[in-house]
Design a protein that fits this description.
This protein has 246 residues and is an all-alpha fold. It has one domain (3-245). The chain has helices at residues 3-23, 28-54, 64-87, 100-103, 108-122, 135-158, 163-190, 195-220, 229-245; strands at residues 126-127, 132-133. The protein has a two-stranded antiparallel sheet. A hairpin with a 4-residue loop joins strand 1 and strand 2. The radius of gyration is 18 Å and the shape is globular.
Length: 246
């Protein structure tokens, strides 16, 4: 994928899904299957693709850098934990039920947390060593953002946000991952810092975020930690697809 294709792939599904969510309600059973599939795909892609690349030996990388990879994975995991205080877990499928009083307050915290989360996810999409995009990661972000877009629009509708404002925030959400992609592109192009170090930092942060998100979804989509056959099949499909694409 070239840069334009990557940006479109990251943004358009969010916009189309959000617009669809403005007029249709989401089937909860199907929604949980999509979440289970996306979580299994993200977790498997992280373990089979992103994690080995983050630890891959490169010329000039010192052994102590491997310890730093682990550190930034923990930082990414912890950062997502902190962002939960803002977003309330919208990134991993938490729907929000509000009282009438709560609905009168605009959900700034949730929006800010979601935008930061999306920006960070876009950082490792651009692969500076090859000049191409990480298509496995792009596909993972697409299936990850589809249910989030539904919940995001539903949240704004619950707060009686005008439809023009909903479109504005939807577009804003849709461009955050592309902005992360463009930020990485600029770092690689103009070498604001050691590109090699930047790449493993970006990869490691997102690995930590994905580990948090995917495990949270997998635990929460089970009813009393029991999984229906359809959810198990959805998760297996996500694992198989991640293996094929990786």
């Amino acid at each position: 994928m070239n840069s334009i294709q990557s940006i479109l792939a990251l943004s358009l599904p969010v916009i189309f899904t959000g617009i669809f969510a403005m007029y249709f309600k989401l089937n909860q059973s199907f929604f949980k299957l999509v979440l289970a599939f996306s979580a299994a795909y993200l977790f498997s892609t992280t373990i089979m693709h992103l994690l080995p690349e983050a630890y891959q030996l490169h010329e000039g990388v010192h052994v102590t850098d491997f310890k730093m990879v682990g550190l930034f994975i923990v930082v990414g995991f912890s950062a997502q934990l902190l962002m939960e205080n803002l977003s309330g877990g919208l990134e991993h499928g938490h729907s929000h039920h509000h009282s009438d009083t709560c609905k009168k307050h605009f959900p700034y915290g949730i929006i800010i947390g979601l935008l930061i989360h999306s920006f960070l996810e876009g950082l490792p999409v651009y692969q500076g060593d090859s000049g191409h995009s990480n298509h496995q990661l792009i596909f993972g972000l697409v299936i990850h953002n589809i249910p989030i877009s539904f919940l995001f629009v539903a949240l704004l509708k619950e707060h009686n946000v005008k439809w023009l404002n909903i479109i504005f925030f939807l577009v804003l959400f849709s461009i955050m991952a592309p902005l992360g992609f463009l930020f990485s592109y600029l770092v690689h192009t103009f070498q604001f810092m050691k590109v090699m170090h930047y790449q493993y930092i970006a990869d490691s942060l997102v690995i930590g975020i994905f580990l948090f998100i995917s495990t949270a979804i997998l635990f929460e989509t089970g009813d009393e930690h029991k999984y229906s056959p359809s959810k198990i099949i959805s998760m297996l499909l996500g694992i198989v697809l991640a293996f094929i694409l990786s």
